[in-house]
Structure formats: structure tokens, C-alpha cells
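Quick start: read one record
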Amino acid sequence: MKIRGKGDKTVLIPLPPAVARAINQAVDGRDHGPILRDVYGDRVDRHATTCRLKALAEGAGIRIARMRPHMLRHTFVTTMLDAGVSLRDVQIAARHADSRTTMRYDRGPQEPRPAP
């Protein structure tokens, strides 16, 4: 899929087949414009995305005080780093221009906290 990201950079990203099918269903034959649209056909903005994510989390029984879409990105990057994926591969997957940005997500080996 070709996407336009920060700074108007266009990149090609590979999609798993299930994701590609879901996107094809969402675009419903359109070849341009936003993938996700509201009931009026306009692009879904970040506020609507946050509200939808909160509703989905609540429906799944997930209780987090400040649920935000960026938490999904953070979880993606952190999980990859924790699983031992190379920093460079995670940087590419996250589309970070600088590896230092990716390194901020790395918590390193987790030491058990001493009991209070």
C-alpha cells in the first residue's frame, strides 16, 4: 500500500493479507481519498479516532484512563523491541527517520522492582 506520512513523504508498506482485505472492503472500490470516512464521507479526524478507540477498548473490557491511538503505535514498537527484533528493522517498520527516536521506546531488560 502506498501511504503519505509526515512531511508529505510517500512510502510503500507491505500488508498482511487480512489487513489488505479489510482495507479493500473499507475503500469499496475507490482509488483515492481517505480509507476511513465518517457518515458524511469526510476523512475521520484524530478526535473521532480517539473516541472510536475508547469505545472499542471499553467494549473489550480494557480499562485505561487515557486511551489514545498513539498507544497502539507505542505498543507495536515496544513489543517488537522486547521480542528481540533489530533496532534497524523496528526503525524501518515504524518509519522513524532517526534511530534515536526508536531507541526511546526501548526499555531494555526489565529488572523486577523490589517490594516496598
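Residues 46-59 form the longest helix (14 residues).
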